[in-house]
Fold TetR/AcrR family transcriptional regulator.
Amino acid sequence: MTLAGFEAVQPAHVPSLVMKQDRPLTKHAIKSKATRDALLKAAEQIFARDGYERAQIDEIAQLSGRTRGAVYAQYKTKEQLFFAVQERQIETAKAEVQKLLLETDDYAERLARLREYYSGLRDPRAGLLDLELKLYAIRHPESAASWADRYTRTYGPGSFDAEFGLAQLPGRSRLHSRALALASLKTALILTMEFLPDHLPRSEAKLLLKEVFDGLFPPNTVAGSAPKKKARAVRKKVSGA
């Protein structure tokens, strides 16, 4: 789960999920977008359930209500469809986090809202897909190199203090490692929650995630009172204005 804004890095082999609308969409474009949306929704379920290697294009097509030909008309390979699913997960998380940033100028409040977001467990499939991406990157390092780079950019040094108002901690690189730890620990807890639901119910997993967040980012890491000018600048940066 992302905790900072993703940089606008679009791998060349991944179709863009955002369509420019300088002019009204044609009926064909509207139909194509509806097809992509249906395919991505179905693919999320199949990839999360079966993993990349075992996922079947025919089953994705059937679940989406489209044909096998419709899948390959939009995505030339299963790998391309898998990357498109990951791209949508990234963009969704990015939009959710940016919305949190835009709702307040108070850095302590931002951290509190981020804590709630991090422990929300809105969709366990996100954790499963995150695991699949990492496994894919390990098994296919050449084709997935751009995704490994993008993942580390997401949790890069400076993203927390710049966007959430965290004070400088001893050793700037520790911000990077803490952000990576948050995402990795959440994925691990989701897997355990799915595997042993009787031993780790959702309510307990949420409490554990909050404790992890508090341990990695205690209150004294938050800038006490940032100048309004700086707060407005951060909001402008996040909103892309």
About this structure: Residues 133 and 225 are 38 Å apart (CA to CA). The chain has eleven helices and no strands.
